[in-house]
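Quick one: structure for this chain?
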Amino acid sequence: MELGELVSALNGFAPPSLAESWDNVGLLVEPSPPHAVNTLLLTNDLTEEVMEEAVQKKADLILSYHPPIFAPLKRVTCRTWKERLVVRALEHRIGIYSPHTAYDALPHGVNHWLTKGLGACTSVPLHPSTAPSYPAEGTHRVEFCADNTEDLDVMLSKIKDIQGVSCLTTLPARVEGEEQTRVSLNCSQKALLEVVALLAQESLLYHKTEILLLQKPPLPHTGMGRLCTLSEPVSLSDIIERIKSHLKLPHVRLALGTGKTLESPVKKAALCAGSGSSVLKGTEADLYLTGEMSHHDVLDAVANGISVILCEHSNTERGFLAELRDTLAIHLQNKINIIVSEKDRDPLQVA
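Got it. Here's what it folds into:
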C-alpha cells in the first residue's frame, strides 16, 4: 500500500480536524516517494527502543499515538533522542504518523475504550467536537424586511455583487399589516461589514434587521473526555478492581473524596485518558478517572467530594492499541500487516 494512500485512509479513519488546535498530528516524517507500506507498527510512545524494534521488524510506517515531534526542531542531528528518532527513521525509510487527540475524540477511540473499565454504562463527551465546517456557506446570516420598491431590487443587486455573500433568498412577508419582502442571506465575516454598510446607506428602505452568528454543528458521540453513567451504582472498591483488571495494572493511585469511603457508591464517573485535569475540571461526578492530575487539581476534586483514580499517563491509553489493530485491519481491508510494539511501556514503575 502506497504511503499516500495509507495516510489518506488513516485521515479518513480519524480526521485530523478532530485533534486539539495545539496538537501536532498527521504524517510527521515522510521518506522520499515512492514509499510502499507493508508493515505498520503501533506504539503509544516512540522511544529509541521502539524505533530499534521497528527497524528489526522491518516496519515501513510507525503510528505513534503521542507525536514524537511536538516542539519544533531547529536541527536534525544525533545530539538529542528526538532528533535521533528522525535520523533513524529516514535512514531506514520508516515514516512516522501520529493521531493523538484525534483518537481521543473518536466515538470509538481511546476514551471510549477507557469507559469499558467501568462496566456497563452510557457515556457522552465532556467537551463535544464540532464539525470542521458550517452547515451552509458563510459564518453569519443576515435577515431583514424591506418595502417592495424598485430600490429594493437595486440594493439586492448590489448585495449579490459582494464577494462572500451566498444563499440570498426573498419571501413575501406581512409586517404591521403592510406587504413587504423578507430577505435572508449568508455571508463571511468580511462580507458582513460590506452588507451592513450598504444597509446603513439605505436605512429608510429596510427595518427589523437580524444578524445571526452561524454555529458549527456538534458531531454525535465525538469529543474530549467522557461522562459515564453506570447502569447500576457500584462501590468504589469494586470500580478500582474493574479498572485494574481492564488496564492490567497491579495497582492504581487513589484519593478519596471528602466524606467518601471505599464502600461509597459510584454512579457517575468522569474520565479522560492521559492528563485529564483541564478536561475534567468542574465536572460534577462521583469519580474522576485519568492518568495524571496536578497535586492542586486533586485537592480541589477531593474537597468537592469527588474521588480520584490515577493510573499514570500512558497506562490509560496503551491498551487501546490492541483494539485499534483489529479495527484498522478492517478499515484497511487487510492490505497491510499491523503489529503492536512489544517494547512500548510506561516509563514509571513502583520501586
